[in-house]
Amino acid sequence: MMGALSHIRVLDLSRILAGPWASQMLGDLGADVIKVENPAGGDDTRRWGPPYMADEHGEATAEAAYYLCANRNKRSVCIDMKAPEGQAQLRELAAQSDVLIENFKVGGAAKYGLDYASLSAINPRLVYCSITGFGQTGPLANRPGYDFLVQAMGGLMSVTGERDGKPGAGPQKVGVALTDIMTGLYAVIGIQAALAEREHSGLGQHVDLALLDVTAATLANQATNYLVGGMNPTRLGNAHPNIVPYQSFVASDGHLIVAVGNDGQFRRYVEVLGVPELADDARFSTNSQRVANRDALVPLLQARMLERGKDEWIALLEQAGVPAGPINTVAEVFAEPQIQARDMQVNLSHPLNPDLQLAGNPIKLSRTPVEYRRPPPQLGEHTDEVI
């Protein structure tokens, strides 16, 4: 069975995370992805460890776990793009490709004759995706951008972390490079939209993605809380700005999450807690009132939550139809039967480790399912095959 994008060839000149995440997604969907790497070390993330993948004898290899997360279903080719011969090879590959992904600084690809204007003249059908910190235009276009920096500049850190006045208060980055990941996913959407449009026009186009743009866009309700409601959001820890109670609570033996989404769920929640009168209290009877009176309500709920253990609360709330759950570690996530049933941990046999385990792809297609054809390649593994 052929993948949904098995008719597409992707020339991937990107490195680190946002671009490789996009090309890995396209590869998972069936595209032939050619990862171009510098012969002197390749993608920087190959060395971003420890940890490093162990070989079949348990000895550490040169492949960092970070690199492995974003580079399956690709072929690695070593080309020196600073050399005229390498530039000629890349132009020839671009002429035979449907998509090119790059994350040079603005103007960087033009130095090698690998910019959109140059390559679209060779291949008018080429969909050319540029990923930068701040985009191809604007006053910050020439500034380099990194996920951590843009999480700060894009407002994400201002709404992440414990609220002021609480222990540990202060802005926090998200625990994964979320801006890079989201930019990679938006890049895939833009690329596929351009490919779909090409079916009608016969022409490719330039897809311009910026980490800062993506961060601003994905502020979602926090953005409209400001743009529509005039509220400049602040940090609330694990609480929600628009729904109460929708947060973590401390039970007698640890933390759990309670996510009350409507007034009916709130009534059932306080009934389980043994304080049904709170549902009829004018301060708490509607979500709007609960948001307004958050500081009065939450301590009342928290006092009751300390009376039982977290597993007992989760069982009781699940039985009552109130969303609740544990705060899992990463190890607990991959031990979760639901994750296992959904094939979210997969084995790709690597030349150095036949039992390489990776996180799976969440897209489930009924007719052209995701396939795991290739493990993350070793540096230059496919140079002779491709060139």
TrEMBL record:
<dbReference type="Pfam" id="PF02515">
    <property type="entry name" value="CoA_transf_3"/>
</dbReference>
<dbReference type="InterPro" id="IPR003673">
    <property type="entry name" value="CoA-Trfase_fam_III"/>
</dbReference>
<dbReference type="GO" id="GO:0008410">
    <property type="term" value="F:CoA-transferase activity"/>
</dbReference>
<protein>
    <submittedName>
        <fullName>CoA transferase</fullName>
    </submittedName>
</protein>
<dbReference type="InterPro" id="IPR023606">
    <property type="entry name" value="CoA-Trfase_III_dom_1_sf"/>
</dbReference>
<dbReference type="InterPro" id="IPR044855">
    <property type="entry name" value="CoA-Trfase_III_dom3_sf"/>
</dbReference>
<keyword id="KW-0808">Transferase</keyword>
<feature type="region of interest" description="Disordered">
    <location>
        <begin position="367"/>
        <end position="387"/>
    </location>
</feature>
<dbReference type="InterPro" id="IPR050483">
    <property type="entry name" value="CoA-transferase_III_domain"/>
</dbReference>
